[in-house]
Amino acid sequence: MRYWLSNNHHIPVTPVGGLLKTLFLALVLLIWASPVLASANSTIIVGSKNFLENRLLAEMFAQLIEAQTTLTVERRLGLAGTQICFQALTTGGIDLYPEYTGTGLVTILGETPMRDPVAVLNRVRREFRQQWNLWWLAPLGFDNSYALALRRDRADTLSIRTITDLTEVAPQLKAAFGYEFIQRADGLPGLKQLYGLQFRNVVGMQQSLKYQATDAGDVDVLDVYTTDGRLAVYDFIILEDDRQFFPPYDAAALVRGKTLEQHPELSRVLSLLTNALSPERMQELNLRIQEQGEAIPNVAFDALRDLQLVQKGKSSASTTQQDSTSLFSYMWDRRMPLLVRTGEHLGLAGLGLLLGTTVAIPLAFLLERWRKGAETMIRLIGMSQTIPSIALLAFMIPLFGVGALPAVIALWIYSLYPIVRNTYSGLRDAAPSVVETGRALGMTEWQILRSVRLPLAAPTIMAGIRTAAIWTVGTATLAAFIGAGGLGVPIVSGLQLADVHVILSGAIPATILALLVDGLLGWIEYILRPRGLETP
Amino acid sequence: MTHTWELEARQLSKQFPDGTFALQDIDWRVKQGETMALIGESGSGKTTLLRLLNRLVEPSSGKIFIQGHPITNQDPIALRLQLGYVPQDGGLFPHWTIKDNVCLVPHLLEWSPEQQQNRFNTLLPLVNLDPTHIADRYPIELSGGQRQRVAVARALAADPTIVLFDEPFSALDPLTRHELHEQFLVLKSTLHKTMVVITHDMAEAFRLGDRITVLKDGRIHQIGTPQELMDTPATSYVTSLIQHHIGYPH
């Protein structure tokens, strides 16, 4: 047997030693990438949801902590929605994030809306502390409520000023609402129930794109945040909530109790922002990001500087972004951060694919030996492909927190199916008559697997890995939803800013990356294709 | 018993899980150095018989002996290494060179590289191929006839006493087939191997076989020399086979 193995038959298998080494390296990287394990005690992880105001507040928290304490701050901004943020907080994936009292009451606690801001604050404070040891710090001074809004001219034509007025004409109108608003009890479902609202048509739309949609005359009614700077720019009026449906949404920092115990200075520092931001001030700040294209860190710095909470003139990031610059020069200006994002992206996708390959190929070998259960097993793995990525991430946050680890695990799960399927089919169907001859001439099943089935299946296996690679590189953009970086970050924030340059600065490198990876794997496939097989 | 048969099957049956018989109560013997042709339609059981000989399938009942010893006394792998085998389409490993293909069994038997090289050099001329010219080429670069010659060389590589052929020439064009028949007869007369050749072509059976076994629906209709089959066909099926296939000069 030793002799057999030592002879060269152009057998394209990774040496076992090399495989182990790769596996070990992957594990080391995984542990390194794990936010849960890596977060040292002196590091505070600030999270935010994936809309601008929340990011801005989180950035202000982060800069304030950096300026006023010796703690290191890690930013995990743009997590996909309330549930993911909240799960990340309860599991320790992040230490704090900006939350709104009404959201805490209705979305997280699942209670019915209340009108009195103080009652709402007291209620969420007590429940969050008792249930999860989470602490609501003092509100920042503004209520960013949900509201329904129309263009002023449209409202005049229809002569409506309140939501009750709207109910009359709603069957002729088209509404564009955020996806979360469509689902939330304090959003569309509750509104329908209380006011009996029925629109002609409701479409789900990214918050930032909605104003432009009304510009184009495609939609009439929007859900808006009352602190949105664009309300004034686009000349919108907020319809009066005459039956007092929307609860107060006072913004405040929501912090882990454990973090506050370890770093008592945090509550002192964060309380410097108590009642520091008026609704008008928030509208101004939001507008600077939304319409003037200023970078969030700069706006956050200015806001803190005006409150004399940070030193003057310390802002480091570049100033305003020019709308007129070409896409190329925009990307060239940001080549270093984009390169870092590309590196992150490649790391996430590569690690997911590597883990997928190291699990899927041996699994397919086992299934080839155990064919009775193979199809069922492969179908089960196939089902994992159909789980929407956000849902998969939501499942994973309680287990793995936020950051690179759950992203890599999600990508790993997504990469399994094409590799298992192709490897199994390739091994099973490899030239049956040749396999039979090998057996008849006295080869053992292991020798046949290693020297006949595997090399003959190599092109099919590589095709599976290629499919998985393209899929993984494409899907790695989802990492942005759970604060794991990658090219999804410019794509997601570009969507929020409704800025095509920003979106493309993520999408173009992602596409190029996918093409390069495909080309590279195609080349490897060519190298691994055993000589003597026809080229396709 | 005065004579030890090279190959012998006693009361051999193979039943499928659904109850049907691939082979039923077969008594069958082959002498040393004899070429036995196995003829029958598809489903007659001829391939099953061949696969029982090298234990690719196990019998439901009955026994097979090689030189008087039950084959079940031996590990299947060790048994197969002693039996040459030539499949219908050559069954060459497409990703191995001709030399690697031919030296498969010596390789499995852990012969030294020099021994393998020597064997390769002496074998190839036997099947009318030039060893130096062809050693490093791949099966796809050869013609169908050349591939089948390589397959024969591979079956003979470790000098087995018994060689099994599973419709070895049926996929070839008539001219090449004729050529390989000639070659087969030369090898037969020089090497004195015991050979079992499956065919569905009566003309081929007549030409290659010292004796012929006619199988139908899992049972033996007749075993005999070509002359015996012509003179005294045992069943109407044998008669019809002969009439159908020997209606032209060959």
Question: Separation of termini of chain A?
Answer: 34 Å
Q: Please name the CATH topology of the largest domain in chain A.
A: MetI-like fold
Major sheet of chain B: 6 strands, mixed
What percent of residues of chain B are in strands? 15-25%
Strand order of the largest sheet of chain A: 7-6-8-5-9
Q: Which structural category fits the helices and strands of chain A?
A: alpha/beta
N-to-C CA distance of chain B: 39 Å
Helix content of chain A: 55-70%
* Count of helical regions of chain B: 11
Number of strands of chain B: 10
Q: Tell me the series of helices and strands of chain B, N- to C-terminal.
A: EEEHEEHEHHHHHEHEHEEHH
Shape of chain A: elongated
Oligomer: heterodimer
What is the name of the CATH superfamily of the largest domain in chain A? MetI-like
Radius of gyration of chain B: 18 Å
The name of the CATH architecture of the largest domain in chain A is Orthogonal Bundle
Class from helix and strand fractions of chain B: alpha/beta
The low-confidence parts of chain A are 1-17, 34-40, 315-323
What is the fold's blueprint, element by element?
The complex is a heterodimer of chains A (536) and B (250).
Chain A: H1 2-6, H2 16-33, H3 35-38, E1 43-49, H4 52-68, E2 72-79, H5 81-90, E3 96-100, H6 101-108, H7 117-132, E4 134-136, E5 146-151, H8 152-158, H9 163-169, E6 174-177, H10 179-183, H11 188-195, E7 201-204, H12 207-215, E8 221-225, H13 230-233, E9 236-238, E10 251-256, H14 257-262, H15 265-270, H16 279-290, H17 296-306, H18 327-333, H19 335-369, H20 374-385, H21 389-400, H22 404-429, H23 432-440, H24 445-475, H25 488-497, H26 500-528
Parallel strand pairs in A: 1-2, 6-7, 6-8
Antiparallel strand pairs in A: 3-10, 4-10, 5-8, 5-9
Chain B: E1 7-15, E2 21-30, E3 35-39, H1 46-53, E4 61-66, E5 69-70, H2 76-81, E6 83-86, H3 98-102, H4 104-108, H5 113-126, H6 131-134, H7 144-156, E7 162-166, H8 174-191, E8 194-199, H9 202-208, E9 211-216, E10 219-224, H10 226-231, H11 236-245
Parallel strand pairs in B: 3-8, 3-9, 6-7, 7-8
Antiparallel strand pairs in B: 1-2, 1-4, 4-5, 9-10
Helix pairs in contact in B: 5-7
